[in-house]
Amino acid sequence: MVLRHVYRSIRAKAPYKHSRSFSQLHSGSRWPSFGIAFDIDGVILRGNEPIGNSPQALKRLYTDCGKLKFPFIFLTNGGGVPESKRAIELSKMLEVNIQPLQVVQGHSPFKQLVNRYENDLIVAVGKGEPAAVMSEYGFKKVISIDQYALFFDNIDPLGPYKKWVTKMTLDNERTYSKEDIYSERVKSAFIVSDPVDWSRDIQVLCDILRCGGLPGREYSHQPPLYFASDDLEYQAAFPIERLGMGAFRITLESIFNRISYSPLKYTSYGKPNPTVFENARSILESLPLDCDPHTANGHGASRQPLDTLYMVGDNPVVDIKGACQAGRPWFSILTRTGVFKGKGNHEQFPADIVVDTVEEAVDYILKKECRNGS
Ligand SMILES: [Mg+2]
């Protein structure tokens, strides 16, 4: 297959000096010197459908008996379900064995905040099972905004007109009494995944945030607010990009700043934040591999630093910008199956190379890294 590479001039002409072929590594040991981070939406999947021959491409990263051969993770700004559940879903869709450790979602860094809010009442917002996600991370008093809003009569004046709301699912979620909710202020709100009912969520969040964590009370200090990502748009099943969490953030912020005395304070995670790439690197360097003697007993161990880390993404302002900001040893590969659909490279955030599909990306990587291919 002929790759339609668009090399970024200087970087492509000067490939990594220290890039080593697979067979040259570690005195005959067979540890790869590279790792790969794949974005999901617009690279691996569109909606729930695999694209770009992603199942076939990923199979090349496993041994014949289905064990992981080359370290790779999914690095997505999406989410809404626990990593363990998402790993099972991806394994079925892509027909390879994905471990929970290989799934890094936009909200995965929230687990670092457990010590701060472990026993505090926190609200989780978004599609899927946001409360289950936070509970799995170790937060003990988490409530979804769906359940929380039910405790406040008439908090959403448009609620009676939302005839599309046919059922309320509180699966895997702890239930609370009215006394629980009225006796404690919300200490922080987490936008775990894309909000579903924007009008209600904006209303209830404005109430929580400007009333010191308890809607209907006097105006008070804003509790902390966290977003799992800040994507303005992303590629879903519809042909044109859809509004993402960044669009929701802009909407909430615009309204809050008009009705509140002080501007909205918040923290956003997800790509292109450099800490996401640092975390991805550390996971890739400790991922248990079939060929790794350190993991023969089933436990991952930190190996030598990887020489090259590939970021395969479809969104220049998220995936490629992030990899560029993270710097070496990250190497960015832009696909044309998602947000980016141009013929050449992206002007503002050019990738190291541009390919049509994830299959071409994997082909490029394996040819470059392995003398004899995979
Ligand atoms: Mg994407």
UniProtKB/TrEMBL annotation:
InterPro entries xref list: CDP-alcohol_PTase-I, HAD-like_sf, HAD-SF_hydro_IIA, HAD-SF_hydro_IIA_CECR5, HAD_sf
GO process annotations (BP): glycerophospholipid biosynthetic process
The protein, known as: Uncharacterized protein
Pfam families: Hydrolase_6 (PF13344), Hydrolase_like (PF13242)
Source organism, top-level taxon: Eukaryota
GO annotations of cellular component type: mitochondrion
Organism, scientific name: Amborella trichopoda
